[in-house]
Amino acid sequence: MFEGLAEAVRYCHDGPNSPHPSEQGSWDTVVHRDITLTNIFLSSSQASDTHYSTIKLGDYDCAVPLSDLTTSRPIKTDLSREDPAYVPPEGPVARPKCDIFQIGLVMVCLSYGFVEPNDVRQEEAELSRARKYSNELHQSIRVCTKEKYGKRPSARILGTRIRAAKEKMEGEGRFPPYESLL
């Protein structure tokens, strides 16, 4: 799920089938701004050769194309209200790495079984509670929830990091079966 969510956000930020940001062409980056547990949908296909669900990201009411920001300098009050529990440390702004912070909060909630991220804002103390998950998963979540905006990865880099960790653990025979659900 973590990998699929990173890919859905990468699509919003970079466009379809864009292997590198410089090849985006005319794609207008969309910042979702409301990545919450209630806005993530799972679907499956009978034709699929995998047992994993497909992640669908919904509710684009708070979403903002970056071109809107460059043409009309909106202020915070102009932006649609996002779920306050998922607002990143920099506030309710429209920047791609704000979506990454929200991905991290969603993954923290899924890892611990929380409905809202309010209880897990102190990530360092809380992440130690879910010891059944791998260090690789913990590290990927931690990098998403960094307080400083510039310390968070892009969706593309996050997806690459998740895939590399998954492949490494599978190759070493230590990919926990329950972690494949996340």
From TrEMBL:
<comment type="subunit">
    <text>Component of the EKC/KEOPS complex composed of at least BUD32, CGI121, GON7, KAE1 and PCC1; the whole complex dimerizes.</text>
</comment>
<keyword id="KW-0808">Transferase</keyword>
<keyword id="KW-0418">Kinase</keyword>
<dbReference type="Pfam" id="PF00069">
    <property type="entry name" value="Pkinase"/>
</dbReference>
<dbReference type="GO" id="GO:0004674">
    <property type="term" value="F:protein serine/threonine kinase activity"/>
</dbReference>
<dbReference type="InterPro" id="IPR000719">
    <property type="entry name" value="Prot_kinase_dom"/>
</dbReference>
<keyword id="KW-0067">ATP-binding</keyword>
<protein>
    <recommendedName>
        <fullName>EKC/KEOPS complex subunit BUD32</fullName>
        <ecNumber>2.7.11.1</ecNumber>
    </recommendedName>
</protein>
<keyword id="KW-0547">Nucleotide-binding</keyword>
<dbReference type="InterPro" id="IPR008266">
    <property type="entry name" value="Tyr_kinase_AS"/>
</dbReference>
<feature type="domain" description="Protein kinase">
    <location>
        <begin position="1"/>
        <end position="169"/>
    </location>
</feature>
<keyword id="KW-0723">Serine/threonine-protein kinase</keyword>
<dbReference type="GO" id="GO:0005524">
    <property type="term" value="F:ATP binding"/>
</dbReference>
<comment type="function">
    <text>Component of the EKC/KEOPS complex that is required for the formation of a threonylcarbamoyl group on adenosine at position 37 (t(6)A37) in tRNAs that read codons beginning with adenine. The complex is probably involved in the transfer of the threonylcarbamoyl moiety of threonylcarbamoyl-AMP (TC-AMP) to the N6 group of A37. BUD32 has ATPase activity in the context of the EKC/KEOPS complex and likely plays a supporting role to the catalytic subunit KAE1. The EKC/KEOPS complex also promotes both telomere uncapping and telomere elongation.</text>
</comment>
<dbReference type="InterPro" id="IPR011009">
    <property type="entry name" value="Kinase-like_dom_sf"/>
</dbReference>
<dbReference type="InterPro" id="IPR050660">
    <property type="entry name" value="NEK_Ser/Thr_kinase"/>
</dbReference>
<dbReference type="GO" id="GO:0005634">
    <property type="term" value="C:nucleus"/>
</dbReference>
